[in-house]
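Protocol step 4 of 5: obtain the predicted structure for the target chain.
Materials: sequence only (see below). No template structures provided, no constraints applied. The aim of this step is simply to have a reference model before the mutagenesis design in step 5. Sequence pasted as it appears in the construct record:
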Amino acid sequence: MDSADGHLDGAGDTRSALGIAWSCLAIIFACTWTAIHPNIPSEHIRHSEWKLRRWRLIQALWALMVPELMVMWAVQQWAEAQRVSEAYNTANGIGRGGMAALNDVEKNDGIARTWTSVHSFFLVMGGIINRAEDGTTQIVHYRDVVPQTSPQSSEDRQSLPDDAAQPPPFEWPTIEKEEIDDKSKGDALAKAIVVIQTSYFLIQLLARVARRLTITKLEIMTLAYALLCGMLYAFWWHKPYNVHRPISIRIQNFKPQPPPRKAASGGYLARIMNGGFVLNLHGSIVGDGEGLEVLEELNGELELSMNVNLHRVATISSFMTATAFGGVHCIAWNFEFITRSERLIWNICSALVTAIPLVWIVMVLLGYFVDQLRNKCPNALFKRFIHVALGIPLFVLVFFLVCAYFLCRVILVVEAFVLLRDLPPSAAASVDWTSFIPHV
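Step 4 output (structure tokens):
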């Protein structure tokens, strides 16, 4: 609000477009870099410092382009870590319970064993390798701890109870939590600086709202990234950070489980409607480059795991995150724009980025019923009709929705920077913090 002399109430010194851009970019990159907790890199990557840095940078760039898929990854690993913890509790007679119930357990041999949520995440991220008697090594996978099944139809998969997991038929590894923490490269000081910097940014936004000072579109976009990174921190809170090498130990009676087989019924339409394109992109992100092994696990383990809804939950969580990400951009719906056309472009793109993931959620839910219909129908001709009548239109629809979604995302990023070219006085004004101090 302007005062009588034309000065903005609650405004201090002015700020430049370059200063706003650098501040927002610093927050986005810092939040993204510290929020991403990568898996253990493959052997051919961790033996080269250059490949390690490139691999880490690629994952950070993916997080900037598709942060919602990173949330999908975090949700998936958080759910798997919970199942690992429950399997350990069952194997050691602790009883049903989540990660909070894990504690020291003394077996009949008098040795106390401790398994924490950090251990569960470390196993899920490929951090434990079994060293066999013949000298060969094998990664202990999630499916080795929580045995998987391979039903032949979606109907059979849905008939599996949620508590169908059986204790693993081997002696659980004994690893000190301190040994895992020693491998983790999480810098408490660096994370504290990022948290302080982000908190100050959020306080600034609230102060600008309180003083009715304009918030730039780039700051709105930065807010969206900060919120998504906060979600990643929440789901990956106990996951070791930036570990490069696994721990090799000898596990008694270890029997690796084969990868789950894909259902014989196929489910082509369900693959489209359940977000198969998301899994493909997701696999290339969490993998080591080729992502072939990860893709195989995603296409099989996520769909055929004992928790039959894990794939759909992870996919829907990704779409809901994308909707929230677009919804934050809608905050600027009635903000001041330089031209009407730029306002229209921003509003249309924000609306599409918010709405398109909702359409995908509906498609995921419909995919279940379509898959059920195909499996229950014995008529091959009718199955072929469903394939042609629904499969082709859905493929075209998904293609255009994906193109429209990412095009709108790019436009929003470009416009957020372009709109800095001519800042209105209320946007260029910085917050006068002394105005919040009560005075007579």
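Step 4 remarks: The chain has one domain: 16-430. Residues 16-430 form one domain.
Proceed to step 5.
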